[in-house]
Amino acid sequence: MNIIISGRRLEVTEPIKKYAEEKIGRVNKYFDHITEIDVTLSVEKSKVEGEIHRADVLLFGNGLKLKVEMEDKDLYAAIDKATDVLERKVRQHKEKLKDHNKKGTH
C-alpha cells in the first residue's frame, strides 16, 4: 500500500507526515486490497472561524475508490476525523462484499 501525503498552503512537516501515515495506514487492517491512499492536507482562512484545517483522502483499491473530506480547527483532529470516516466506509464496503458473496453461493 502506497500512502502519498501532500500539503496545499501548508508545509507538511515530518511529525505531521508520520502522524498521518500511522493513522491513515490503520485502514489496511480492514481491507487488504488497498493499492494507494492520497492524503492532501490544507489550511484555509475564514473571517468567522479563523484557520480551518482540512484533510482530503482518496483511497484506491481493487474495484474501490473512496473519498473523504473533513475539516476542523486543528489539523490533527481533521486527520483523526477523516481516518474514522474512512475506516467506517472501508468496513461497509467489506461487509457489502461478504453479503454479495453469500448471496452468490447456493
From TrEMBL:
Q: Name one GO molecular function term.
A: ribosomal small subunit binding
A biological process (GO) annotation for this entry? negative regulation of translational elongation
Cited Pfam families: Ribosomal_S30AE (PF02482)
- A GO-annotated cellular component: cytosolic small ribosomal subunit
Highest taxon of the source? Bacteria
The alphabetical list of record keywords is: Translation regulation
Q: Which residues form the signal peptide?
A: none
Q: Which residues form a coiled coil?
A: none
PANTHER family under this entry? 30S RIBOSOMAL PROTEIN
Q: What is this protein called?
A: Sigma 54 modulation protein/ribosomal protein S30EA
Task: Tell me which species this is from.
Answer: Sebaldella termitidis (strain ATCC 33386 / NCTC 11300)
Which lineage is the organism of this entry classified under, starting from the top rank? Bacteria, Fusobacteriati, Fusobacteriota, Fusobacteriia, Fusobacteriales
